[in-house]
Amino acid sequence: MVAKFLLKPYHRLSFPLSPSTFRLTPHSKPSSVLFTITSRAAATDITQLHAAAAPLPYGPSLQKGTIPSQSFKDSDQEEACEDALDEASFARVFRISALRVPAKDCFALESRLRGHLLNWPRVCNVARGEECEKLGRRIYGRAEGDGERLSGVLYRERLAETFNSRGFVNFRNLAKISRPKRGKKREVNEKRDGNREGGVKRNKFAVVEVIEDEEREGEDLRGLLGDEFKGRRWRGSTRLLLLDDRYAEKCLEDLPEAVKAVFKEGERDGTSSIELVSCILTLFYDYWSMNEILEALLPKGMIVPSSFETVGHIAHLNLREEHLPYKKLIAKVVLDKNKPKIQTVVNKIDMIHNDYRTMQLEVLAGNHSLVTTVVENGLRFSVDLATVYWNSRLATERQRLLSGFTRNDVICDVFCGVGPIAISAAKIVKRVYANDLNPQAVEYLEKNIVLNKLDRKIQVFNMDGRRFIKSLFASEKALSITQVVMNLPNDAAEYLDAFRGIYGDKPKGMMHALPVIHVYGFSKAGDPEFDFHERIRIALSEVAVQVEMRRVRLVAPGKWMLCAMFTLPRIVAFARTTAFKDQI
């Protein structure tokens, strides 16, 4: 006979359980998990398939245990298409042993036997029994600690017990008036998901089944407890202590001395109610991590795409050529394992070639909206990845750049995009002049400025970067600019020639601090710093340029993104050129 046990988080299940059900609380709470009850199926042992391979590490693995032959799918599940992920194929069954102990002794025994209990990730080693709770609700209208509202009779009895000189201390209606109900929206969502088959299926996590010994079954309790208790022996409130998988299917004589001592103490006192039982632990698709699922899905030896960029609710993948035949499956796993934060999975299908720096993206899973909101440095940015550029991986570099600004600075952001640097700098500096060639980016920039209430400190321009530099420094604003940011790594160095002669019409003897320029660029050379420095010298037509160079990140094998910081040389700023005035 098989008695079923349930692994679940602290919140109460929204569907009925069998009388012999146990629930387990994971150490680290999974994201909104509900676990279904399934019958134990005949299984295929896969441990033998990996016997010749290297020894597997401790803990659960998709290469261990057995594969259930029956499907764990819902009865109304539709036929899977060729790109659909068969979640039932990731169920694994493990044989373990457990101690059935009285609830009152569980805490002491857990601390005493901790070194011999199951120590698997996200699986607690204590299962909570619900047999007595089922009876408690049936007879008394409640069960201790189950979160149920008391029946009317018991509620009046509790009020009578708590009555004193101040009146009724705990009064339900007064409590409802004095403060709003906590977690109301969450309870409604949980109830809705629990009533839907799809919600139950989506949240199943793991199931424990206890294999009962027919000879140890007690008297028929159907007359007292109902048909669900046919042939069961009443044990009261109990817990399961799951032993380490090393002790699976072992008799009492083969267990460690600490476990034997527990049984001996109970026999000596004559009140032993501890039992050694055999269990089956089934781990479902939702238990396994993203990397474990992908490693099992992809061909052996293929690199697992375990990292991706997150932009709001969008996961941005950069899949290799070898991953493209499996792109739908990879996206489905990424979406499942990162909900609810991730709602859309996209893949970049081409390099950035256009002047607006927009990417060609393919939606692989989730909703098709590419408009999202990103929170960075406490500010909100509205972004449409289909029409503007955004790179979350540069958040640390942007923070480093901002740390060098002061409240007396005036910033000129030549290639601002939707404003991650310009808007963040406006919280620190005196004034910001922000420009971008892409009209869609300028539209989102203006929206983000209003969204963050910084419209008084930022002036927006929509023009070519070279023309913007020359027109801005030809105006009366030129002498106030202290910092220039040029974050266009692919082409920014080529725009440095616009700074030659920007003060050509002003007297050379004037004492004024020249702006500090921060320019970004890519380099594939063996010495990227030297290569980028040479390009800066060529653009400025000046050899003696003191540059402070740093590597930002490795964007591809052998391709570095660098940031060069230097003060604009006086000889460059005051160079005489007739072409400059003609262009203005």
Summarize the SSE layout with pairings:
Layout: E1 2-7, E2 22-24, E3 43-45, E4 66-68, E5 92-102, H1 106-112, E6 126-129, H2 131-140, H3 152-161, E7 163-164, E8 167-168, H4 172-178, H5 184-195, H6 197-203, E9 206-211, H7 222-225, E10 238-242, H8 257-269, E11 275-283, H9 290-297, E12 309-311, E13 314-317, H10 327-337, E14 344-348, E15 361-366, E16 371-376, E17 379-384, H11 395-402, E18 410-413, H12 420-426, E19 431-435, H13 439-451, E20 458-461, H14 465-473, E21 483-486, E22 516-523, H15 528-540, E23 548-556, E24 559-567, H16 570-573, H17 578-583
Parallel strand pairs: 13-14, 18-19, 18-21, 19-20, 21-22
Antiparallel strand pairs: 1-9, 2-6, 3-4, 5-10, 5-11, 6-10, 7-8, 9-11, 12-13, 14-15, 16-17, 22-24, 23-24
Helix pairs in contact: 5-6, 9-10
Question: How is this structure best described in words?
Answer:
Among the domains are: 87-128 and 236-287, 2-Layer Sandwich (Alpha-Beta Plaits); 290-369, 2-Layer Sandwich (GMP Synthetase, Chain A, domain 3), CATH 3.30.300.110; 391-574, 3-Layer(aba) Sandwich (Rossmann fold), CATH 3.40.50. The chain has 17 helices and 24 strands. A hairpin with a 2-residue loop joins strand 16 and strand 17. The chain is elongated. The termini are far apart.
CATH topological fold name of the domain at 391-574: Rossmann fold
For the secondary structure, the number of strands is 24
Q: Can you give the mean pLDDT?
A: 76
Stretches with pLDDT under 50, minimum 5 residues: 8-43, 71-82, 130-146, 164-180, 192-203, 214-219, 228-232, 578-584
- The CATH class designation of the domain at 391-574 is Alpha Beta
Radius of gyration: 33 Å
Number of helices: 17
Helix fraction bin: 25-40%
Structural class estimated from helices and strands: alpha+beta
Gross morphology is: elongated
CATH superfamily of the domain at 391-574: Vaccinia Virus protein VP39
Strand arrangement across the biggest beta sheet: 1-9-11-5-10-6-2
Main sheet: strands, sense, barrel? 7 strands, antiparallel
Query: How much strand?
Result: 15-25%
User: What is the second-level CATH architecture of the domain at 391-574?
Assistant: 3-Layer(aba) Sandwich
User: What is the end-to-end distance?
Assistant: 90 Å
